[in-house]
Amino acid sequence: MTRILVVEDDPDVATALRVLLTRAGYEVVAAADGREALRRLFADGPDLMLLDIGLPGLDGWQVLERTRDMTDLPVLLLTARGAESDRVRGLRAGADDYLPKPFGNDELLARIEALLRRAAPARWAGAAQDDALRLVPERRSALWHGTEVRLSDIEYRLLQLLVRNRGRVVTTDQLLDQVWDDPQGIGRERVKFAVLRLRRKLQQGTEGPESDPIEAVRGMGYRYRGERSP
């Protein structure tokens, strides 16, 4: 059964959404604030998230940003803010669709169905692993040969993107666009130095350069190949 995470702090709205979605045949999990949303996101692995922007604690923008560090599942923003600037901000931050309140039940269900039709199965960074590596999104770290490696946000997002594309070259322009949100490719040297820092961290306490899982592909970009065979 398709599982939907509803992130909404208004109990009346949350209850109405649960009833609507359950009747439509979906499994519903709910969160009333941003921190609970992230816990449920990691624990339940939903297929789609309905996300309210005006949340207590971590707001919807912060939840969306952290969600995109963990998964590419569809996110539909539900918010009382209907200004074009808010819609643009949401879409640029990684939301897949935007529905201002109040909205009709039929429109909401139609948008959910459309997102689910277009979406491939959500990929989860926490599940990305091989014999040597496991990403730990809730701690922004990686377990490399059983040793925890603490990473900066940029290093974590960089490693996550490379792991998602295991075996394929990710170009420098793609890294700038998706990790740094720099589609114009300004400051390309930052990629080189960030990869260098990441590789050094992964090599610390392991077998040295021969255990480096990241390959530089001259003139193109970088590739995560996993642990190098002995």
TrEMBL record:
Q: Where does the OmpR/PhoB-type domain start and stop, copy by copy? A: 124-226
- Record's protein name: Response regulator
Residues within the DNA-binding region(s): 124-226
The record, for Pfam families, names: Response_reg (PF00072), Trans_reg_C (PF00486)
Residues carrying 4-aspartylphosphate:
D52
Q: Which UniProt keywords apply?
A: DNA-binding, Phosphoprotein, Transcription, Transcription regulation, Two-component regulatory system
- Asked if Transcription is a keyword of the record, the answer is yes
| Response regulatory domain ranges (all copies) | 3-116
Tell me if Transcription is a UniProt keyword of this record. Answer: yes
Species per Swiss-Prot/TrEMBL record: Streptomyces crystallinus
Where are the residues of the annotated region Disordered? 204-230
